[in-house]
Specification:
- The complex is a heterodimer of chains A (625) and B (159).
- Helices cover 40% and strands 13% of the residues of chain A.
- By secondary structure, chain A is α/β, with parallel strands linked by helices.
- Chain A has a 5-stranded mixed β-sheet with strand order 10-9-13-11-12. Chain A has a 4-stranded mixed β-sheet with strand order 2-1-3-4, covered by helices on one side. In chain A, strands 7-6-5-8 form a 4-stranded parallel β-sheet, sandwiched between helices.
- By secondary structure, chain B is of the alpha+beta class.
- Chain B has 2 domains: 61 residues, no CATH class; 83 residues, Glutaredoxin (3-Layer(aba) Sandwich), CATH 3.40.30.10.
- Chain B has 8 helices and 4 strands, in the order αααααβααβββα.
- In chain B, helix 3 packs antiparallel against helix 4.
- Chain B starts with a helix and ends with a helix.
- The mean pLDDT of chain B is 89.
- Classes of the chains: A alpha/beta (625), B alpha+beta (159).
- The interface between A and B is large, with 61 and 45 residues.
Amino acid sequence: MERLKNIDDLKRLRDALNIEITRPVLEVCGGSACRAGGSKKVVLAVKNEADIRGIDLEVKVTGCRGLCSKGPNVKVRPHGYFYTRVKPDMVASLLGYTIGANTPFRPLLYRDDILSEPIEKVEDIPLYKKQFRLVLRHNGRIDPKSITDYIKIGGYSALQKALSSMTPDDVLNEIDKANLRGRGGAGFPAGKKWKHTKSAKSDIKLIVANGDEGDPGAFMDRSIMEGNPHSLLEGMLLNAYAIGAQYGFIYVRHEYPLAVENLNAAISEARELGLLGKNILGIDFSFDISIREGAGAFVCGESTALIASIEGARGFPRPRPPRLSEVGGGVWGYPTNLNNIETFANVPIIIEKGADYFLSIGTESSPGTKVFALAGKVKNSCLVEVPMGITLREIVYDIGGGILGNKKFKAIQTGGPSGGCLPEGMLDTPVDFDTLTKAGSMMGSGGMIVLDEDNCMVDVAKYFLSFCQSESCGKCPPCRIGTYQMLQILERITTGKGEHGDIGRLEEIGKKVVEGSLCGLGNSAPNPVLSTIKYFRQEYEEHIYDKYCRSKTCAGLGLYVIDDEACFLCGLCKEACSFDAIKEGKDKFFIDQDYCTKCKACYTACPIEAVKIEKKTSVKVSKSH
Amino acid sequence: MINVQEEMEIVGDILTDEQKRRAVLIHAFHKIQKENNYLPEDKLVALSEELNIPLSDVYSTASFYKQFYFKPRGRNIVCVCVGTACHVRGAQDVVHQLEKDFGIKAGETASDMSVTLETVGCVGCCGLAPVLVVNEEIVGELTKAKTEGIIDSITQIQR
């Protein structure tokens, strides 16, 4: 590709690309999840089949569309038919129907469930109807490895606009006016951060994009880096132009190899075209980006720890001030502006369409959209982008399609290990930065895990705490020791050794960890425990006083009995028991409570759920009848 | 072994020599681990001499990050995702099943070096939960049978 010498060159290139092409295009999703489902084989099969039949078509491997649970996904243009769960051996029929006969291939169309009518077009799928795709609007339409694809659909036009008709201050003011709040979790206004970095007295300034998406159950940044890496580069370029930065880093976690691959390809193509490097588009503006890979440390998502990691040290956070944006605070002491991947991806949209357009979406205090990763016990595990202010109920039921297996909703966990669990009564809470914090949870980076009646809230709290405990860097004692002590108490409670006063102790230690810790990890680590105590105190009490887990998740609790009426005497439970606690009577099995260790082996072994776990107290009452 | 100037790219222009040598450290670990499957002691000693960073400092940094290993790992690496979405959909059962069949605990390597069993925070494929990664290939929507298939294919390679 030839280097673009000035802004007109970019315009000319875009015009040249925009020639109408009539041949059909097959957009095959190439995101991590669809790859796991075999999308690479689908691409090969399509190419093969097209060769055999002599069909002239273009196969495009795109980024994540968000419907990860039904992958691999294929969309055919210009027809618009959308296929899910495509397998290589079905490609022949798919092409035959769609391209050959111009009719949809019904077996692969999207269905809510096996009985419902198939839906032909992607726009009509309920999952996409309620969404407002702004940041993800090009995901699934472009090949992330092709810069021309991005330019063709209008990519880099925000950069073009900024460089040709806006001063750096104009760009800065536009972002400030749009009130773009940091999408990484805290919601700090990006405009303020940028202004602060700009005002620092240093000739050299740096930019860091934080792609260390460590929250388990979150994959928003992954999908942007994998599916539309150029939108990130464009956002960083605009940021650099606005504040006068020369170098940028993208910090990506090591668990995302595909993101690293696509970002590397994007950077080298942008360099080739002259969109990165010295004198971009012929004007006096130079900026270059390099990638830094993490190595599996959750705490490196914290900004000061991330900077230590870029410098090649242990990822320890440090006290602030100095802030990152001040001299002496950033990477190697240079003033540094650090934003989340999604925040950067929002920047080109604001510059291109104006701050007023952005302000018209979402709520007053939190304008714009937010991408959420909806997962857990929900029918459609997917990536959704919704305007701020939508309620949790709409996300779970209208977009997520309700609870898996039509079970009862119990709680929704937002904000990853730093967030909290909200019960059913809070489902009508509108989602934005402030209301979620008020409810005792937080927006976080955007993970949303739905829990149903089979999930034990104490166990979930224990899970998150054990995650934070093992990821605690160990620098400051409240976090290192406090989370350990809390985990020990939870461990006791879930194994039936809980004591009176444990809940109070958890609350007390939790509050001290929040107050005493240095960085965001410690400040928020007790959140899942504190919020579950707030909303699900009864479950904790049941574990401690009744020695009973209502969702039967925790071993070592409850009273194990065999339901004689249901039991059909297969004997599997007796085989499974390592403690010889199950005795065989003349025509029934029963559990000898003196031997039973409540290990759950018989409970899982029983094919017809005849082994019951009951509350001890209720059994005593019924026996006295 | 490692070209400091080249690895730092253009940003190297604004850094002192010492800053550059330190900044390539994590990158160097990744490189060594890719070649050797783990971080062998002799390689770290060589790296410490080359970059002129004390060996204790090199170890201190490497040991902070979970992805770096100081013991040789197996020929196959099975990594079970224990992220939230996988956890609520039964990742622990998968871990138990693998632990039982391989006869090792999570984080350990079989004595014949055939397989290493690990867990990871999240691989970002929550739509397919529960998920595991076999030698960098992601396998999703695990069922008991599917997991058994993976176990069989690995124990077969072993033979």
